[in-house]
Structure formats: C-alpha cells, structure tokens
Amino acid sequence: MTLAVSAIATSPPPWIPKSFEEAWKSPEEIVIVRGEMRQPLILNPVPGVILKCSRYASQVEELLAMKFARDRLSLPVPRVLHHPPLPRRPGRRYSAHMKTPVWYICMEQCPGLPLSDTIDDMTPMQHDHIAAQLKTILHQMATYKPKWLGSVHGSPYNNFFFKDYVRPKTTFASFGEFHDHIRWMLELFCAPEFIDSFMSRFPRNAAIRFAHGDLLPKNIIVNGSTITGIIDCEAAGFYPEYWEYARMHCYYHRTPGWESVLRRLFPAPPREDEIYAVDEYRSIMAYQF
C-alpha cells in the first residue's frame, strides 16, 4: 500500500526562506517558536500559522503521518496548509560550502499551550478531562488494523527509533521480525546475557497498531483542559500495540500531573517490563548510534 500525497491547494505562507541558513535569519516580525540547530526550526510567520522547516526533506514522513492521522483516524493533528512538492531524493545531503535547501510543512497553529506547561498546576477534575480525551484518541488509533510494521505509507521506518545504518531496509510483516531486528541491533555491541535479559521484557505477542510514538505532554496542545492538537508526528507509524503505552510512561517525562493522568487512563498496575524495555531502547538509539 502507498499513500499518495499531493500539494495542498492553498497559497504558500507569506514568507518562505530560500535556505535553512536564511530561516535562522528570518525577519524580526517572524516569531521563532522553537529552534535548535539539529532539530526542525518552528516559525510563526503570521497568527494562526506554523512553519516547520528542516535542512532535508526528513519531514516527509511527518507530513504523510499527519495526513493519515487526520484523514483516516480523525485525530486532532494540525491541518496542513501547504508544502513543497515531495522530493525525489529525500535523503540527499549537501556539502558544507553549499546553502542547504529548506523543506517545510505549513500548518494551522493549534490554539493553546503544550500540556507540559500546565499539567502540574491542573486540578484533579481537569486531569479527569485530559484522560477522558486521551482515551478517545487511543481508541481511534486502535480502530485501524495495519498489516505491517513500518511507516504509514508502506515503507520502512525512517525516524529516530531506527537511526543511521541500523535502519530497516523493508517493512516488517510480523511482530517476530520487529523483535528480530532489535535483537540484531543489540548484537552489534551488547553481550548475549544482556540481550537475552533485555528481550525477555518485551511481550511475546502483540497486535499491530498505529502509534504517534511520542504522545507526551510536550506534544499535546491544550486550551484550558481541552486538547486542541497533537503535534510532532515524525515518529508516527505502525508498531506493536505496547509501544505507545510504554512511550507515554517514559521515565524522563514523568511529572506529578502526568502521573495523575496516566493513572486515570491506565488504572491497572504499570507494565514496568514493557516501559523499561522501550525506554532503554530509546536511550540506546540516542546514545549508541
């Protein structure tokens, strides 16, 4: 299966940088929402509009995931307003003396603030409201039954969970193939005893489901206690069903407010083995590759 995406039939934003370097020197009236040299640059060129710029067309995966989440699952992801034509060679890199072409997604701005800014100051009733909305969102994700593990458009994963030379060459047809690939990566630098212990923490079987992959308070936009948007879909795709659960319980992002929401959303005792395994795997990808 492939997911065809055509350019959105609306006008481009009023200002578009000609290179990634120029994006960092945007006019004073352009608000920089977030900017890190190795991360996409988030700009607010006019009220209600977000421009997400990157050096390479790495955001194509995010664009396709956003359209899938919005069109197929009716999730509250931002509406895409405009983007350049999809590149023929999305992985192309440029030498240091060349200006780096910029690729972008122009999208609606979700009203409100990241949940991470307010969750620890919310009341128990507001936590109830957040949890109820997330329960509905997770239910919508579970309605689609994928036939492979990988990107939503039928290609292998291309995100921060599988970096550089350990990135899969194909989609995975089964849960077992997914775990075999993780084991192969660990065998590159880990002792057999550690690998066996680590892999034993994963479930022996699981359904395949759509997952945002980073569904944490920093990526949930709220107006009061009403969720107005789910952003940063670059890691979204089809994963074992435990993946989203474990990512939402990421140790690094736990705060009293988020813990309160998670207890309401998942009242059963935490599945610590799965949480640990996915969290540790994320650390390995971040620091070993």
Automatic annotation (TrEMBL):
It holds the Pfam family APH. Residues 65-265 form the Aminoglycoside phosphotransferase domain. InterPro entries: AGP_Transferase, Aminoglycoside_PTrfase, Kinase-like_dom_sf. SUPFAM superfamilies: Protein kinase-like (PK-like). PANTHER family: AMINOGLYCOSIDE PHOSPHOTRANSFERASE DOMAIN-CONTAINING PROTEIN, AMINOGLYCOSIDE PHOSPHOTRANSFERASE-RELATED-RELATED. This is Aminoglycoside phosphotransferase domain-containing protein.
